[in-house]
Amino acid sequence: MKKKSLGQRLKNLFSFSSDSEEFFEELEEMLIEADLGAQFTMELSDRLRRSGAIRNREDLQQALRTELLGELRVTDPGLDPDRLNVVLVLGVNGVGKTTNLAKLAHLYQQEWPRAGISLAAGDTFRAAAVEQLTLHAERLGVRIIKQKSGSDSGAVIWDALESAMARDDRLLFADTAGRMHNKAHLVQELEKIHGIIRKKAGDAVNYRKILVVDATTGQNALRQAEMFHEAVGVDGVLLTKYDSTARGGILVPLARTLQLGCIWIGSGERYQDIHRFDPESYVDELIAP
Ligand SMILES: Nc1nc2c(ncn2[C@@H]2O[C@H](COP(=O)(O)OP(=O)(O)OP(=O)(O)O)[C@@H](O)[C@H]2O)c(=O)[nH]1
Ligand SMILES: [Mg+2]
Predict the structure, then answer these.
(1) Whose CA is closest to atom 21 on ligand 1?
(2) For residue 289, what pLDDT is reported?
(3) How far does residue 267's CA lie from ligand 2's centre (Å)?
(4) Which residue pairs, CB below 8 angstroms and at least 24 apart, start in 194-199?
(5) Prediction pTM value
């Protein structure tokens, strides 16, 4: 069950007079709890206070909508149908990397029906990770390049690239581990994979790094994003679990602080539960009464 959403909570605000201090304090709390970030919240609240234009819920909803749409960034998938695209999914453990990698493969089976697609089982750290991805590959009927659990992830990615290039595939979706012995180790591992892809792929391959962000994580997601962005440079965001949270405003601080845009939204556990990011429907869902 979803907690009360931002939109539902906004209704309660109007028990206060909309020019009172309590009104704006409550509003700020609600915006912060929706993960929109302290900076955006304060700036918006100040602007609305000064404008004196908020008389009722419709005014507030309209103002929020405009402000949010002004902040959000949309990023194109940036995939090129004429060459091999390597899509590396990154993110801490449990955010939904493997599931959404499979969803992306499913999506592109439909969008590019003639393209060769393969998966690379780059998470060799978590015990069942290779089996999990193998199951998806079987269900989807796509090729998987894997080695046994515990082997070198860089070697798996190297092999996967080599065979995808040899077969003239168009898409290689590469999974990565979300947890290693410690954070430094995780960063090191990703830097290594990143180096291997850059070296092996060169200009012949279009390389995209997708940060998977769990919409239920809260402000921690921003610090995680900073870490991945600093380590390998992120091209865009895939926001997952938007179906299971009343918050989900994290895209605003990601856009503001790191200039990261969203590409896809995951909204469930089935293969078809992924969509291109559409700011309008995202905002509507966030503030829907
Ligand atoms: N409700 C919902 N659940 C999701 C979504 N995406 C993933 N999940 C679930 O989140 C859980 C973790 O997903 P995984 O894909 O295994 O996450 P991961 O990032 O690969 O995890 P590690 O491999 O441990 O790092 C699974 O139970 C998924 O079914 C989503 O969009 N909505
Ligand atoms: Mg995984």
Answers:
(1) 94
(2) 78
(3) 17
(4) 194/88, 194/231, 194/232, 196/154, 196/157, 196/158, 196/161, 197/86, 197/88, 197/157, 197/161
(5) 0.96
Q: Round to whole Å and give the CA distance between 233 and 260.
A: 10
For 56-77, what is each residue's pLDDT tens digit?
999 999 999 999 999 999 999 9
Query: Is the pLDDT assigned to residue 3 strictly greater than 90?
Result: no
Here the tokens at position 102 are 């499979």
Q: Whose C-alpha lies nearest to ligand 1, atom 29?
A: 269
Distance, CA of 238 to CA of 277 (rounded, Å): 9
Q: Which ligand is nearest to the CA of 96?
A: 1
Atom of ligand 1 nearest to the CA of 267: 31
- Atom number of ligand 1 nearest to Cα 102: 15
Cα-to-centroid distance, 93 and ligand 1 (Å): 9
Residue 203's closest CA among 80, 76, 60? 80
Q: Is pLDDT above 70 for 196?
A: yes
